[in-house]
Design a protein that fits this description.
Blueprint lengths: L1 E4 L4 E2 H8 L5 E5 L7 E2 L4 E2 L2 H4 L11 E4 L1 H8 L3 H12 L6 E3 L7 H10 L3 E4 L3 H16 L2 E5 L1 E5 L2 E6 L6 H10 L3 E4 L2 E6 L5 E5 L6 E4 L3 E4 H5 L8 E2 L2 E7 L14 E5 L2 E10 L5 H16 L4 H20 L1
Parallel strand pairs: 5-6, 6-7, 7-8, 11-18, 18-20
Antiparallel strand pairs: 1-9, 2-4, 3-8, 9-13, 10-11, 10-12, 13-14, 14-17, 15-16, 19-20
Helix pairs in contact: 1-6, 4-5, 7-9
Length: 321
């Protein structure tokens, strides 16, 4: 089962929670406004708005007050500053972030409570804050979905192992981990589309770093195999679909037919691997990942063999003539 979601609005509370540590964020005032939604991923420095010019004002974005904005506000008489800020708050902005741990004007605090607009503060330099916060917002608004399957990293290749329950997805992943590869997620994989159009797989937070193995129960992977045996997230490069032999049409054995799996609108290369007693799925998935890497580098074994056979056949025919 797969479920996709396109997020177009992000609550300020989600931005605060996600960026609390990475952005050194703290809530200063306006707690009642945390449910407000941020409707654009980009951030805005409202210099013109603070001067009273609101044409083309990006009011749907997080508003950032850096050193320049604070210096401008400090240059105003208190009465004028209060009026300009009131007009600013009246634009239905989602939230305000004051960077560099700058002193917050009393008018900002009072208006944040009055208009129920969250007022946040960060210790980061404004430029660094905007760069990091933009990445966080792009992740929060990115189209995302959950896919049934176990994801592993094999020598830099992100592989999603999918198939019906009981075919050995987790056991195959466990075998790959024992060979030195890494687990991204078990059983359910969260996928999102990043700004470059790549699919990024990550574990569901509730079961991060854990696997369920039939007969063993729940295991904690880094405790057994070390911290290098897990990954926080990985780009999805290949889908390995397990199926029980005899339940579906066998794939082209020559390997020249290239299958793809469409996830969030992205076509991902796919291999079909039949499951039957005695078949080494660990080696098959590992080999499929390495073969994908070779093909990405321009080396296609099936195509090269086909061309060689055609060349030999053509040469033999020419010799007989």
């Amino acid at each position: 089962m797969e479920r996709s979601t396109i997020v177009s609005r992000v609550p300020v509370s989600a931005f605060l929670e996600t960026g609390r540590q990475a952005l050194d964020l703290e809530l200063v005032a306006g707690k009642a406004g945390l449910p407000r939604t941020i409707r654009e991923a980009a951030l805005n420095r409202p210099g013109l708005a603070l001067s009273g010019f609101f044409d083309y004002f990006a009011h749907r974005r997080i508003q950032v007050l850096g050193m320049a904005e604070n210096a401008y506000l400090a240059s105003m008489p208190a009465v004028e500053r209060g009026q300009r800020l009131r007009e600013f708050f009246a634009q239905k902005i989602p939230c305000i972030v004051v960077t560099r741990h700058k002193r917050i004007f009393p008018e900002l605090m009072l208006l944040a409570e009055e208009f129920k607009v969250p007022l946040l503060r960060s210790g980061q330099i404004t430029m660094h804050f905007i760069n990091s916060a933009t990445i966080i917002m792009e992740n929060l608004v990115a189209p995302r979905m959950t896919a049934q399957g176990t994801m592993v990293e094999i020598m830099g290749i992100g592989v999603l192992i999918e198939g019906k329950p009981g075919l050995g997805k987790s056991e195959t992943a466990l075998g790959l981990i024992k060979r030195g590869h890494s687990l991204v997620s078990d059983d359910v994989t969260a996928l999102r589309l990043d700004s470059a159009g790549a699919l990024i797989g990550a574990p569901v937070s509730a079961i991060r770093y854990h696997m369920e193995i039939r007969g063993l129960g729940i295991i904690h992977v880094p405790s057994l195999f070390g911290v290098t045996s897990v990954r926080e997230e990985k780009r999805l490069d290949l889908v390995a679909t397990l199926f029980e032999v005899g339940t579906m049409e066998e794939p082209d054995r020559s390997g020249q037919t290239r299958l793809t799996r469409t996830l969030l609108g992205v076509e991902v290369p796919q291999v079909l691997l039949g499951v039957k007693p005695g078949r080494d799925l660990v080696t098959l998935v590992e080999t499929a990942a390495l073969d994908y890497q070779l093909r990405r580098l321009g080396h296609d074994a099936a195509k090269e063999l086909d061309e060689r056979l055609i060349s030999l056949m053509s040469g033999g025919k020419a010799a007989s003539e």
